[in-house]
Amino acid sequence: MSEYTPLSTHAATAQIVNATDQGMLLRTGSAALTASVGSPTSRHDHRWTTRKWEVAPDHVGAWIAESDFGTAPAVTRALHDAVDAGFLTYLPQHTAAEAERECAAFLKRRFAWDVPVERVHLVADVVEGLRVMLRNFAAPGQPVVVPTPCYAPFLSTPRKLGRAVIEVPSVQADGRWQLDLDGIERALSGGGVLVLCNPHNPLGQVMREAEMVLLAEVVDRTGSRVFSDEIHAPVVYAGAHHIPYASTSEIAAQHTVTATATSKGWNIPGLKAAQLILTSDADQQLWVERDIVPSQNGSILGAIGAIAAYRDSAEWLDETIQRFDRNRRLLTELLRVHAPHARYHEPEATYLAWIDLSAYDLPSRPAEYLAQHARVVTSEGADSGVGYEKWVRFNFAMAPELLTRAVESLGRALASRPLAER
Ligand SMILES: Cc1ncc(COP(=O)(O)O)c(C=O)c1O
């Protein structure tokens, strides 16, 4: 695995370039976190500026959930081969079927979850999977219940489809975030769809089996459904253990639609091939009868990427998790030193950190303040639900040198503010 060239070498050209394992140059932003590094952007080739780095000049992109660490060599090779062969057509059925097989095999190897391959279905992406679920497998008119904080599109997507959304804030107890099961039961009292996220974005927590068992009872009692977004399941740190919600009981299996993908673990969200897993017999029957999402709707390169990721790239994934892990620990240390009043639980999964800045007297949109004053672009907590206006989500999937500079800069911007009155 290639290492990053020290930041100082790049300072001359005022950019940090991530030499990924493929030797490809991905533009990952300028190093101008300090005044000594000027504004360089006009000299750059912008072709390889990723979405995360589409930020103002001299700002660090720490917002959208993509990583600066590229993808696995086997994925890159498979994509090159496909392009060289002109394999850029509609998605052939045999390729879709192979991706579905490799997904099922990965779920079995990694999580001991035995899913019949015919229950795995390609869809363009996980958010599209949520739309498919709401349009086809959820009673019309019922609300969507979202434990918060949450991934922002869990709130916006159902609303765009005309669904009422009920936010149920999770509670902090014993150093963990826990679902408010009573609140969820009240919100689901007339039936509805609960959107679960496990491992959790933005909290970085991995759900414990006992909590899932209690949740399944609530969902079952209220005759509701679950959409279980498990897109982050490949990125779990040692010590935590991902258990697919639908695998916890037959009752859970029958009320759940699970979504997963290679897009986070292997950093290929642009390829568009997520997987829906239909453990409910009724859902599966409807899917087949109505041809709900024809298999050629996925992307051919997405399916090729998913096959190579699931089948050939476990070692790369584990090495990359170790890289994230080092950053996770570095971030804890950096926040302790540079932002001592920020509150943060080290995540058990994902490369996202959910940071409580309520101890600082900040303007109403802290991420905006930090972008302006620290030149670090994070995600606004308010997007994750009502009550999280003083939080930000920080993506730490970046070179450690850059992470260090970013948090030092955040620390300076925070230190320039008074502490909030308690
Ligand atoms: C929890 C969660 N679900 C879904 C997505 C988006 O996935 P997709 O691009 O497959 O829609 C993300 C991306 O950050 C995410 O964090």
Keywords, separated by commas or semicolons:
422 residues, alpha/beta, Aspartate Aminotransferase, domain 1, Aspartate Aminotransferase, domain 2, 2 domains, seven-stranded mixed sheet, 13 helices, 17 strands, globular, binds pyridoxal-5'-phosphate, Aminotransferase_I/II_large, Class-II_PLP-Dep_Aminotrans, cysteine-S-conjugate beta-lyase
Short description, anyone?
This protein is α/β, with parallel strands linked by helices and 422 residues long. Helix content is 36%, strand content 15%.
Can you characterise this structure?
Pfam families: Aminotran_1_2 (PF00155). It is an enzyme of class 4 (lyase). The protein is built from 13 helices and 17 strands. By secondary structure, it is of the alpha/beta class. The protein folds into two domains: 155 residues, Alpha-Beta Complex (Aspartate Aminotransferase, domain 1), CATH 3.90.1150; 239 residues, 3-Layer(aba) Sandwich (Aspartate Aminotransferase, domain 2), CATH 3.40.640.10. The N and C termini lie far apart (47 Å). The relative contact order is 0.16. The N terminus is likely disordered. The structure holds pyridoxal-5'-phosphate. Pyridoxal-5'-phosphate binds next to helix 4.
Largest sheet: 7 strands, mixed
Order of helices and strands: HEEEHHEHEHEEEHEHEHEEHHHEEHEEEH
Radius of gyration: 22 Å
Number of domains: 2
Structural class: alpha/beta
Query: Which term fits the overall shape?
Result: globular
Distance between the termini: 47 Å
Q: Helical content, roughly? A: 25-40%
CATH superfamily of the largest domain: Type I PLP-dependent aspartate aminotransferase-like (Major domain)
Average of pLDDT: 90
User: What is the CATH class of the largest domain?
Assistant: Alpha Beta
EC number: 4.4.1.13
Cofactor: pyridoxal 5'-phosphate
Domain Aminotransferase class I/classII large: 68-410
GO molecular function, one term: cysteine-S-conjugate beta-lyase activity
